[in-house]
């Protein structure tokens, strides 16, 4: 049998291409220093993934003005700690599950108490301890909308899970839109431009179901109603799924664990400006670096970096970073963030406020609210400490608990007297927690400059711990591929079909 001369030539071409790619990587020196601005879940996971990609030789600095953990935080009340920021993790959040396993942390399974949804006058839906009663209520009030919602969310999650395969095979994306499109095609990107209300109406859900069930889920998770964009709305509905969990000791332990595992140096300071500088090298050539200026207790400090990752919202209320002398200019790119106030109260809830006349057997442990303008809270629910406590330190009076109240504004003394029959401890945490979602949404760029990346661009689509971790890995891959000229790993089309053929 005669072998065509084209066959060895083809193999020779493949070998030459491989050698050329290797030569390009060798000619481009590895980065010496990388700065990550922000030590929340985004910043610490970015440092972790950057270490995996670039190796141990690179110095990684995480510059943080506050505490490690960012919007993952706890409050202490009477000897116990409670989640004050990001509190729940979905069972399909694979990056968070991997972090917990590799860092030697323990998952804490959350007890699902009875739920009530209040409209300002009465409960429009109230769970029972009996499954058959709940099913009857659901069908009587909303037909098959609950079942259809389960299937709708499962379909969304099935598409969402594709990102983990892409990242396993080192594929990255240069924009948030291209990342979302790779997961769910035009369906995912289109959801950025319409509300979750419009999205669900188009899918055939009733307006009563959206008002009574969907809007309360938006209010508890994002402090906003069903006018948020369709993608963040879908993420919020997935966050109401069963099997939710948290990290024993507090979700912020993931951040401190990633900081340690990344071997990054924590620098306490507030970044004030970033400017590109050209510096000479020993070989007589020049190199472009980024001069990062930050304020510390000892005064202003300047440091030079090859790559900078902004892992914090670029809004003046949180980070007023100036980008100096860039052409074209780099400006603050994020939309305003939404204020959410978390108030922790140790006391006895006033059941009569929620329409339960005295004497009242108040069985619900979490109350969501519909979009009623007269209501001054978004939700109220009893919470458990981040570490298990013995029965001896739990109040014997079952109706005296620690309650977590979400509200758009700080609660007044009058509000507290309306909500509680009695209370003896109050702690307030005020958060600029997530963006104000007003579709159509315009995603900020991920690449702000040649070597400056904006991790929190993804929050304009949806803000969540796992979303930050996904963005962190994407930026680690993207910065690595762009540094070494591996364009074939960036913004590739039809990855679903490509990976099927590769496997």
Strand proportion, as a percent range, falls in 15-25%
- Please count the beta strands (DSSP E, at least 2 residues each): 21
Poorly predicted regions? 1-27, 391-397
Report mean pLDDT, rounded to a whole number.
Answer: 90
Distance between the termini: 31 Å
Report on the biggest sheet: 7 strands, mixed
Give the neighbour order of strands across the main sheet.
7-6-16-17-18-15-19
- Helix % is 25-40%
Structural class: alpha/beta
Total helices: the number is 14
Radius of gyration: 25 Å
Domain Prenylcysteine lyase: 125-492
Subcellular location: Lysosome
Enzyme class: oxidoreductase
Pfam families: NAD_binding_8, Prenylcys_lyase
Describe the protein in words.
The protein is an alpha/beta fold and 503 residues long. It is 34% helix and 25% strand. It contains 14 helices and 21 strands. It has helices at residues 6-27, 41-54, 94-102, 131-142, 145-160, 162-168, 176-190, 196-202, 207-222, 230-238, 252-262, 413-419, 465-483, 495-502, and strands at residues 33-37, 59-64, 74-77, 80-83, 107-109, 115-118, 123-126, 245-247, 265-268, 270-280, 286-296, 299-305, 307-310, 322-324, 337-349, 366-369, 379-382, 400-407, 420-435, 447-449, 452-454. The strands form 5 sheets. The chain has a 7-stranded mixed beta sheet with strand order 7-6-16-17-18-15-19. The protein has a 6-stranded mixed beta sheet with strand order 9-2-1-13-21-20, with helices on one face. Strands 12-11-10-14 form a 4-stranded mixed beta sheet, with no helix packed on it. A hairpin with a 2-residue loop joins strand 11 (286-296) and strand 12 (299-305). Helix 2 (41-54) packs parallel to helix 13 and helix 8 packs across helix 10. The longest helix has 22 residues, at 6-27. The two termini are 31 Å apart. Mean pLDDT is 90; it is low at 1-27 and 391-397.
């Amino acid at each position: 049998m005669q072998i065509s001369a084209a066959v060895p030539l083809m193999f020779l071409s493949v070998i030459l291409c491989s050698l050329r790619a290797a030569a390009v990587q060798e000619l481009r020196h590895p980065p010496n220093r990388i700065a990550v601005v922000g030590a929340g879940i985004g910043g610490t996971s970015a440092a972790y993934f950057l270490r995996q990609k670039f190796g141990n030789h690179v110095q990684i600095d995480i510059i943080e003005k506050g505490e490690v953990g960012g919007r993952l935080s706890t409050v202490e009340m009477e000897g116990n700690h409670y989640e004050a920021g990001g509190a729940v993790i979905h069972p399909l959040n694979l990056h968070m599950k991997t972090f917990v396993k590799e860092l030697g942390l323990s998952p804490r399974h959350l007890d699902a108490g009875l739920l009530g949804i209040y409209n300002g006058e009465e409960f429009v839906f109230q769970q029972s301890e009996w499954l058959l009663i709940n099913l009857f209520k659901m069908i009587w009030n909303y037909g098959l909308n609950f079942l259809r919602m389960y299937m709708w969310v499962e379909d969304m999650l099935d598409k969402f899970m594709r990102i983990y395969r892409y990242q396993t095979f080192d594929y990255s994306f240069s924009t948030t839109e291209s990342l979302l499109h790779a997961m769910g095609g035009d369906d995912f990107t289109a959801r950025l431009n319409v509300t979750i209300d419009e999205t669900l109406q188009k899918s055939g859900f009733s307006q009563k179901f959206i008002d009574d069930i969907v809007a309360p889920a938006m209010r508890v998770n994002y402090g906003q109603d069903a006018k948020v964009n369709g993608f963040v709305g879908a993420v919020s509905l997935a966050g109401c799924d069963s099997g939710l969990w948290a990290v024993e000791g507090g979700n912020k332990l993931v951040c401190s664990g990633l900081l340690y595992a990344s071997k990054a140096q924590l620098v306490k300071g507030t970044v004030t400006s970033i400017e590109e500088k050209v510096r000479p090298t020993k070989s007589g050539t020049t190199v472009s670096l980024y001069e990062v200026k930050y304020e510390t207790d000892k005064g202003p400090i300047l440091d030079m970096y090859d790559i900078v990752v902004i892992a914090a919202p670029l809004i003046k209320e949180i980070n007023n970073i100036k980008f100096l002398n860039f052409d074209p200019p780099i400006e603050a790119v994020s939309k305003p963030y939404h204020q959410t106030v978390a108030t922790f109260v140790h006391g006895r809830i006033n059941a009569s406020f929620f329409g339960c006349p005295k004497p009242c057997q108040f069985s619900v442990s979490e109350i969501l609210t519909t979009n009623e303008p007269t209501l001054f809270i978004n939700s109220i629910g009893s919470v458990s400490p981040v570490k298990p406590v013995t029965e001896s330190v739990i109040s014997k009076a079952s109706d005296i608990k620690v309650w977590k109240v979400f509200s758009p504004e700080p609660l007044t003394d009058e509000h507290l007297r309306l909500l509680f029959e009695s209370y003896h401890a109050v702690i307030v945490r005020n958060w600029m927690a997530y963006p104000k979602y007003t579709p159509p949404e315009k995603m900020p760029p991920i690449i702000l400059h040649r070597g400056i990346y904006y991790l929190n661009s993804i929050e304009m689509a949806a803000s969540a711990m796992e979303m930050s971790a996904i963005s962190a890995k994407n930026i680690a891959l993207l910065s690595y591929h762009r540094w070494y000229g591996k364009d074939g790993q960036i913004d590739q089309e039809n990855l679903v079909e490509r990976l099927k053929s590769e496997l």
